[in-house]
Amino acid sequence: MPKLTKRTVDALDPEAKDYFVWDTLIAGFGVRIMPSGAKTYQAQYRKGGRTRRISLGRHGTLTVEQARLLAKEVLGDVAKGENPAEDIAQHRKAPTVAALCERFFQAHVMERCKPSTQGEYRRAIDMFINPALGSFKLVDLERKDVAELHHKFRDKPYQANRTLGVLSKMFNLAEIWGLRPDGSNPCRHVPKYREHKRERYLSQVELQRLGNVLADAELNGTETPHIIAAFRLLILTGCRLGEIQTLQWGFITDQGMELPDTKTGARRIPLPSAARAVLSTLARVDGNPYVIVGKVAGKHATDFQHPWRRIRERAGLTGVRIHDLRHTYASNAVSSGMPIQMVGRLLGHTQIQTTMRYAHLADDPVKKAAEENAERLNALVGGTMLPAPSLRIVG
Q1: What is the mean pLDDT of residues 61-81?
Q2: Secondary structure of residue 11 in the 3-state scheme
Q3: Mean pLDDT of 54-62
Q4: What is the C-alpha to C-alpha distance for residues 109 and 113, in angstroms, rounded to an integer?
Q5: Contact between 292 and 242 (Cβ < 8 Å)
Q6: Each residue of 222-239: pLDDT tens digit?
Q7: Could you report how far apart the first and last alpha carbons of the chain are, in Å?
Q8: Averaged over 57-79, what is the pLDDT?
């Protein structure tokens, strides 16, 4: 038959089985007619002793000329030594971003991260990454796709940056696992948003109000003794919530709290006498190794947020987080003149940069010391100095 045209293709009738009609102008270009009547353009070639075929698109969606041009491109690639059909087959089998997420979580996060971090990664994957990018083929994801997701949460810069960080780690591992070429991480050069650190410190008046509310709750029994003790320990030690929450009696020694596993690894936390006094008020529960006993037998308390909201409301501390008690501990230490390196050791920071966020608070005792010293010197030289005369510009 003559070369394929719209008229000749339109005239092809379906049969009991599908069949092919080939173009006389370009060898390897043809149309496939299905029993249903559907007609699809094809490019056919031989590679490695096998006949390979690629579907170019449906008749009606593509014109004959458009399909012929696509066939020329495919057959041209074959002439260059490529194998387009195999590339397509491999692409179909390529893992999706969702599959990478699951492998990342099981092979990396579950093996290397602490439970709290595992929860953060799981949340980022389930709530932000998979809904937007999960269906993408891993090899197809580009920087613009990541940038678009990051931009979507621009009103939540902290969450946007954490999600970007999880994605970047995933794609670094994808390169190590051979799923993407080296240096192809699509998160590279996507700028993070500026984050405004929440550094809320309780004033002396606020601490007094909080102390009064804790005492009232203890007296009235509105909160359990263990929950009240937990908040007092957080104030007195500067610990992270998880460190007090999972504290066991066996970790307490004459040297302090010997914690085998924290965010920064095993560490010893000093236990001042005020904190030991708090611990002395708590009865040990048989069969339960934890200091802060929970409702489930043998387990530690898990819900601190609900009681904290009740307590902070009564203390007039709206918006104050439990973690702000740690900030308060640090701010009081720095403001009292304690060296920043010592504060970092008390807080368990592994990098001095983390502690430096409190460095500006050290200005207060320095200013106070400067004022006191200047007053003593001023008294010695004869009292208050007169102000300098004003200058009058002439001319």
Answers
A1: 92
A2: coil
A3: 92
A4: 5
A5: no
A6: 999 999 999 999 999 999
A7: 106
A8: 92
Within 13 Å, how many C-alpha atoms sit on residue 392's CB side?
1
Nearest C-alpha neighbor of 22 from the set 50, 42, 49, 47: 42
Q: Is 164 helix (H, G, I), strand (E, B) or coil?
A: helix
- Amino acid letter for position 67: A
CB 337 within 8 A of CB 362: yes
Indicate the residue type of 248: Q
Q: Which helix (H) or strand (E) holds 253?
A: strand 252-253
* 144 has a pLDDT exceeding 50: yes
Q: Where are the alpha helices (DSSP H) in the chain?
A: 6-10, 64-79, 84-93, 97-104, 110-112, 115-124, 130-133, 143-152, 157-176, 204-220, 225-237, 241-245, 273-280, 305-314, 324-335, 340-347, 352-355, 363-380
CA distances from 223 to 10, 274, 286 (A): 81, 21, 21
Give residue 199's pLDDT: 74
Does 391 have pLDDT greater than 60?
no
Which residue in the block uniquely carries the two structure tokens 């394929």? 4
CATH 1.10.443.10 fits 204-360, yes or no: yes
CB 293 within 8 A of CB 281: no
Q: Which residue ranges make up each domain of the chain?
A: 6-92, 97-176, 204-360
Mean pLDDT of 19-47: 93
Look at the domain 97-176 and name its fold: DNA polymerase; domain 1 (1.10.150)
What pLDDT score was predicted for residue 395? 46
**Arithmetic mean of pLDDT, 149-174:** 95
For 212, phi then psi, to 5°, come to: -65, -40
- Cα separation, 354 vs 344, whole angstroms: 8
CA nearest to 41, candidates 79, 15, 75: 75
The reported pLDDT for the residue numbered 1 is: 60
In whole angstroms, give the CA distance from residue 101 to residue 117: 15
pTM: predicted TM-score of the whole model, two decimal places: 0.62
Q: Are 11 and 20 in contact (CB under 8 A)?
A: no
CB within 8 Å of 326: residues ≥ 6 apart: 234, 238, 239, 240, 347
Can you give the pLDDT at residue 337? 84
Residue whose pair of structure tokens reads 């045209």 in the numeric block: 5
CATH class of the 6-92 domain in this structure: alpha beta
- What pLDDT, on the 0 to 100 scale, is given for residue 250? 95
> Whole-angstrom Cα distance, residue 71 to residue 224?
76
